[in-house]
Amino acid sequence: MKETTIVHVVTNVSHYKNPKEPTGLWLSELSHAWDVFAAKGYTQKIVSPKGGHVPLEPLSLKWPNLDASGRGWLMDESKTALLQNTLSPDSIDPALVDAIYFTGGHAVMFDFSDSVPLQRLTREVWEAGHVVASVCHGYCGLLNVTLANGSFLIAGRKMTGFSWTEEKLAGVTKKVPYNAEDVAKQRGALYEKALLPFTSNVVVDGRLVTGQNPQSAKATAHMVVQALQEETKAAR
């Protein structure tokens, strides 16, 4: 039986435009999904736009954002080592990928959307009939992905991601380089968000699985598992 392989996408960016304002990977968005996929026995790999080191968002390492999952990651040297030497997108064979999962943190707004290698990997995974997923700001990695026919991957598809309302409540509207929710809508996405900000919300449109915020990471991962299981059934 072929093993199931998940590729997590993380950022290389450590700060907003102002170098004195740090950001990075929101750790729980990786650790929660990793835990879910590990429990299923999936093979997992981590890539970043440039490969190499991944900085962590300081806010994600503080209470109440740092939970047991995140603490467990930080205490595991084998896991922390994974973030010191991530793979580059070009080193991944798309034919071996069953799902690609874009993590978040505001940092990804600066290096996900314009990464041509990430766009290429995502397009090939999608057009091979596999799962594409994101959580929180991770959907920035989907904004500019086009398919073989030239259309945007997210055009006409239901999806979610960190909302502009949540950006306002987080007090970062002047720090972020663009309004991701608006860009998604401009690309033709059927954007949805939860009634209450910062509550778990996952939107599934076939093989596209998206979560709105850090609170959605675990639920998003579970829906990725479900999408993979449905894909396997359909292939039989």
From TrEMBL:
One of its GO terms (cellular component) is cytoplasm. It comes from the Eukaryota. Residues 28-225 form the DJ-1/PfpI domain. The keyword Lyase applies. Gene3D superfamilies: 3.40.50.880. GO terms for molecular function: glyoxalase III activity. The keyword Cytoplasm does not apply. Signal peptide: none annotated. Its EC number is 4.2.1.130. Pfam families: DJ-1_PfpI. One of its GO terms (biological process) is methylglyoxal catabolic process to D-lactate via S-lactoyl-glutathione. Belongs to the peptidase C56 family. HSP31-like subfamily. This is D-lactate dehydratase.
